[in-house]
Design goal:
single chain; about 220 residues; 10 strands
Length: about 220
C-alpha cells in the first residue's frame, strides 16, 4: 500500500478539501462536520494529509511552536481511517510532522503533545521518550505543569482540566482528539494504560492530555 503524505498550511485547505475531511470523519464515526472542521482550519497553522490510492485516509491538524522556549509539536483534531492499514497511516502522519520538527528545531529535543480519547491513541507515542502519563509513574510537579500548559494551549478552561490525572472533562460532545483505532485482533494494551481511560467518556468529549519527547538523536533519523 502506497501512502502519500503532505503537510501544508491549514489556510490552504479549500472547501472541497474540508468536504473530504468531513467524509473521513463520517466514515470513522467521530461526528465532526464541516462547521467544526472549518474552525479547526482557522485555529491551527498546519495540516498533514495522508492519501492512499488518491483517497484521503488520514489527517492531522498541528503546529510547530515554542512553549516557554521549548520546541513543541502540538497535534489537534486528527482522524485515521479504520482497517489493517491504520497503524501505518498513523505513523506516516507522525513521521512527516517529526521531519518538519527536526528541520525547525535542529539538535533539540522536541515535546509532542495531543489529546486522546481511548487507549489506542497511545500508539502514537510508541517511539517517544518519557511519555506522560505512563503506568507506574507518579507525575512530578513540572510534568503536571506541562499538562496545564498544553491544556491551556488546546483552549481548555481550567475548570475542565484535572491536572493530577491529565483528564479533560468534555462539554457534552466529542472533542478534538487524535482519533485512531487499532485494527481488530491487534495486541492488547498495558493494563496501566487502560486504567487511565476508566473515568473517560469519549462520547461527551472527555479526553486525556498526553505528551512525550522526541529526542534529538531520534529526530535525526528523519533527515533527508
Amino acid at each position: 500500500m502506497a501512502i502519500h503524505v503532505v503537510t501544508k498550511d491549514s489556510s490552504a485547505l479549500s472547501d472541497a478539501d474540508l468536504v473530504e475531511l468531513a467524509d473521513l470523519c463520517e466514515a470513522v464515526g467521530n461526528g465532526f462536520e464541516l462547521g467544526v472542521l472549518s474552525k479547526e482550519r482557522e485555529a491551527w497553522v498546519l495540516v498533514t494529509l495522508a492519501r492512499t490510492d488518491d483517497a484521503l485516509s488520514g489527517f492531522s491538524f498541528c503546529t510547530l511552536e515554542r512553549i516557554g522556549g521549548t520546541p513543541s509539536v502540538l497535534i489537534g483534531l486528527a482522524a485515521v481511517a479504520r482497517g489493517p492499514e491504520g497503524h501505518e497511516l498513523l505513523h506516516s502522519l507522525l513521521r512527516d510532522q517529526l521531519r518538519r520538527a527536526v528541520l525547525a528545531f535542529p539538535d533539540e529535543d522536541v515535546l509532542i503533545g495531543t489529546r486522546v480519547g481511548s487507549a489506542d491513541g497511545f500508539d502514537a507515542y510508541a517511539h517517544l521518550a518519557d511519555v506522560i502519563p505512563r503506568p507506574e509513574h507518579k507525575a512530578s510537579g513540572e510534568e503536571r505543569a506541562w499538562g496545564r500548559r498544553l491544556a491551556k494551549r488546546f483552549g481548555i478552561d481550567n475548570g475542565r482540566y484535572e491536572d493530577r490525572v491529565f483528564v479533560v472533562r468534555g462539554e457534552g460532545a466529542p472533542s478534538g482528539v487524535l482519533d485512531y483505532r487499532r485494527h481488530e485482533g491487534g495486541d492488547s494494551h498495558d493494563l496501566g494504560v487502560l486504567a487511565f481511560f476508566e473515568p473517560i467518556d469519549e462520547a461527551t468529549g472527555d479526553a486525556l492530555v498526553v505528551f512525550g519527547w522526541a529526542m534529538a538523536e531520534y529526530l535525526e533519523t528523519f533527515l533527508p
